[in-house]
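User: Predict the structure for this protein chain, please.
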Amino acid sequence: MHKLPQSKVAEFRERMLATQAHRCMLCTEVVTDDAVLDHDHKTGHVRGVLHRGCNALLGHIENNRARNALGGPRLYRMLARVEQYLTTDYTSNPLHYTHRDDEQKRIRRNKLAAASRARRKAEKPA
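Assistant: Here is the predicted structure, written as structure tokens:
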């Protein structure tokens, strides 16, 4: 197998994108100016063209599998359930204890800003 020279990456990416009907191999939406050529970091083989964000998220998943004990079948089962998990209506469940609504966030920002101003004022030389 030959290695793709860096000078040919853009041309190859465009050809591959055309064979993918200009769609990201992961999310299947049209790829425009944020197209990246994805490759397997273990084997080096090019896999397809993805959106930059899809490629970044895929990298996070792949690079953290061992750390999160998500090897083999467990990872694939988890990924297969992500859409359902994220789109389920959980409004009948209680709010998490760390959750702040918009008003609580605004009040906290104002308190932090006031504390920062007071600290800067106290640090000013007389």
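The two ends are 72 Å apart (CA to CA).
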